[in-house]
């Protein structure tokens, strides 16, 4: 039997691209299709939609209103099943030809945030975006009734799917290359070693792109509450604001811009705890930290609350008060590296691959893909 893997658009990096790469490896005989491919060679041999032939491929915001229409008028294909990797409108995909009648499955990272939960996505906050969202929601909900089955990357997203699309979904946690993280060489470049040597012996760590919704200000606040030095690894437009906050605590906050993979792994290993404040649909940072033996303080809402086991591999914070943050850092610090390592194994790529193959086989009848 033959399948088609569908994705929104492809870029060189990104969490959904990482999952799509695993899907492509899991189903190597399936055709791959996207709106446009801007992956700088990471993905090759991927079919593109008509939008790829227009200047709109350079601007997702301008292309957004056209996406639902394009997804409904895809070229003729012959396939036995279709698997859509969707965080916007890819779940609406409809091909002409024999594939029109093929069972469609959806792996949803989330229903489109900017039309369903604009409070979590600034792209949906403006008056024009809200007006467009009101028009798109009933269409999106109706077309979400088409798949024979939906899976998603966390219970948090499953609940959102139930509220927005009125559908149930299986939870198949996103894959993290835990085995690679554990096996990686610890040898650092001289430049990276100098960075490590300059850091405090004991610190709490925040890792992400420096954008406001990642709430790295709360990482600083947690370190201050716990009386611990803070290291922030990453870069982004929120850095000036974070530096202003850090200036109020002289000598307590260190910024590490654009760490290499090796340096980032060493930061994870050396941190007392990793602080993960944002409300994320899944969130790869906590799993990466646990894969390197480091406990995590996560938000009590969102994907981090599912991957981090309170009292075993970290702690959850609901109200980010100084008292609760200090207690959470203390609780997480008492967790053992082995417990973190064992928990991370539950999100390793082979776990995802086995669950995905089973789910596709169960819902399409394609026994060739069953593990």
Entry keywords:
16 helices, 7-stranded parallel β-sheet, alpha/beta, Rossmann fold, 15 strands, 15% strand, 6-stranded parallel β-sheet, globular, 371 residues, 39% helix
Quick recap:
This protein is an alpha/beta fold and 371 residues long. The chain is built from 16 helices and 15 strands. It has 2 domains: 3-175 and 348-369, Glycogen Phosphorylase B (Rossmann fold, 3-Layer(aba) Sandwich); 178-345, Rossmann fold, CATH 3.40.50.2000.
Write the layout of secondary structure elements.
Elements lengths: L2 E5 L7 H12 L4 E4 L12 E2 L11 H4 L3 H5 L2 E3 L4 E6 L8 E2 L7 E5 L4 H4 L10 H17 L5 E4 L2 H10 L5 E2 L6 H6 L6 H9 L5 E4 L8 H11 L3 E4 L5 H9 L5 E4 L4 H10 L2 E4 L8 H7 L4 E4 L4 H4 L6 E4 L4 H12 L3 H9 L3 H16 L7
Helix pairs in contact: 8-11, 9-14, 12-15
What this model shows, in words?
The protein is of the alpha/beta class. The chain folds into 2 domains: 3-175 and 348-369, Glycogen Phosphorylase B (Rossmann fold), CATH 3.40.50.2000; 178-345, Rossmann fold. Helices cover 39% and strands 15% of the residues. It contains 16 helices and 15 strands. The protein has helices at 15-26, 60-63, 67-71, 113-116, 127-143, 155-164, 178-183, 190-198, 216-226, 239-247, 261-270, 285-291, 304-307, 322-333, 337-345, 349-364, and strands spanning 3-7, 31-34, 47-48, 74-76, 81-86, 95-96, 104-108, 149-152, 170-171, 204-207, 230-233, 253-256, 273-276, 296-299, 314-317. The strands form 3 sheets. The protein has a 7-stranded parallel sheet with strand order 3-2-1-5-7-8-9. Helix 8 packs parallel to helix 11. It is globular, with a radius of gyration of 21 Å. The two termini are 15 Å apart.
């Amino acid at each position: 039997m033959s399948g088609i893997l569908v994705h929104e658009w492809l870029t060189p990096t990104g969490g959904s691209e990482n999952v799509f790469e695993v899907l492509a490896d899991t189903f190597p005989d399936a055709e791959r299709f996207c709106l446009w491919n801007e992956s700088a060679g990471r993905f090759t041999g991927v079919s593109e939609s008509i939008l790829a032939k227009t200047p709109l491929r350079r601007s997702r915001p301008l292309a957004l209103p056209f996406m639902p229409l394009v997804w409904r008028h895809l070229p003729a294909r012959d396939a036995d099943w279709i698997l859509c990797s969707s965080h916007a409108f890819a779940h609406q995909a409809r091909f002409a030809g024999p594939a029109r009648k093929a069972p469609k499955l959806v792996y949803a990272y989330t229903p489109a945030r900017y039309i369903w939960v604009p409070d979590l996505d600034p792209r949906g906050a403006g008056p024009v975006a809200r007006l467009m969202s009101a028009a798109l929601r009933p269409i999106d909900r109706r077309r979400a009734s088409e798949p024979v089955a939906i899976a998603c990357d966390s219970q948090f997203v499953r609940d959102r799917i139930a509220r927005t699309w009125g559908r149930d979904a299986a939870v198949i946690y996103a894959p993290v290359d835990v085995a690679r993280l554990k096996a990686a060489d610890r040898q650092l470049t001289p430049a990276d070693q100098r960075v490590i040597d300059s850091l405090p012996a004991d610190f709490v760590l925040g890792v992400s792109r420096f954008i406001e919704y990642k709430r790295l200000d709360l990482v600083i606040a947690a370190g201050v509450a716990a009386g611990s030095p803070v290291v922030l690894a990453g870069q982004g437009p929120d850095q000036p604001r974070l530096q202003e906050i850090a200036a109020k605590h002289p000598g307590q906050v260190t910024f590490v811009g654009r760490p290499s993979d090796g340096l980032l792994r060493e930061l994870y290993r050396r941190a007392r705890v990793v602080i993960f404040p944002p409300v994320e649909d899944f969130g790869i940072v906590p799993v990466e930290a646990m894969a390197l033996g480091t406990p995590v303080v996560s938000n009590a809402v969102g994907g981090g609350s599912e991957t981090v086991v309170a009292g075993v591999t970290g702690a959850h914070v609901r109200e980010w008060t100084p008292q609760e943050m200090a207690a959470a850092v203390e609780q997480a610090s008492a967790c053992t590296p082995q417990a973190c390592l064992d928990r991370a194994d539950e999100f390793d790529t082979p776990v995802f691959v086995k669950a995905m193959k089973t789910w596709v086989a169960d819902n399409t009848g394609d026994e060739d893909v069953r593990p």
